[in-house]
Amino acid sequence: MTILKDLLRNDPKPKTFKKIPNEYKIKASNFQIKEIFYKIRQYNNKMQISRNKNYLIYQQNLKHIKEIKFEEIKLNYKNGCIFFPFFYEKRDHLYNYLILNNADLSKYYYRDCSHLKIFKNYKPKCKNSKKLCNQSILLPTYPDYKTINIYKNIKLINKYFKENKT
């Protein structure tokens, strides 16, 4: 259980650096840089097409639900589409329903960090952090995520909103 808590816990005492720590500084060889650049470019092109397709499937099939909010993207939009994030005021209720029905999802923020000491100078600028923390859900879009699973998530979300008309 401790391992799981460690994976989900934010650093309780984060700090800012005025300069880059030495352990962050490394010098890569020209060969390493060329190899990394090639692999990233190759990966990005192939994987991004898949992520965009998965995002658009969610978008098309969930946009009729007025209670949820998300950023609509266009086909040619340069969005990373790492996940399909959306916001819903009763997030925890929906989240629990989806988890109990074996949906694939996660919360984006597990706790609001705006009150941490490191952010004290930004407090007035963090007015929406609690709201975002309590309303966000992420759906998977990774390239190997099967389309059948995307539609399973969509079906469960649609079912939830049919059963919980407000």
Q: Can you offer a commentary on this structure?
A:
It is a single chain. By secondary structure, the protein is mainly alpha-helical. It has one domain: Alpha-Beta Complex (Aspartate Aminotransferase, domain 1), CATH 3.90.1150. Helix content is 45%, strand content 7%. It has 5 helices and 3 strands, in the order H-H-E-H-E-H-E-H. It has helices at residues 2-8, 30-62, 91-100, 129-135, 147-163, and strands at residues 83-87, 106-107, 136-140. A 3-stranded antiparallel sheet has the order 1-3-2. Helix 2 runs parallel beside helix 5. The longest helix is centred in the N-terminal third of the chain and has 33 residues, at 30-62. The protein starts with a helix and ends with a helix. The relative contact order is 0.15. The model has no long low-confidence stretch (mean pLDDT 82).
What is the secondary structure topology, with strand pairs?
Blueprint: H1 2-8, H2 30-62, E1 83-87, H3 91-100, E2 106-107, H4 129-135, E3 136-140, H5 147-163
Antiparallel strand pairs: 1-3, 2-3
Helix pairs in contact: 2-5
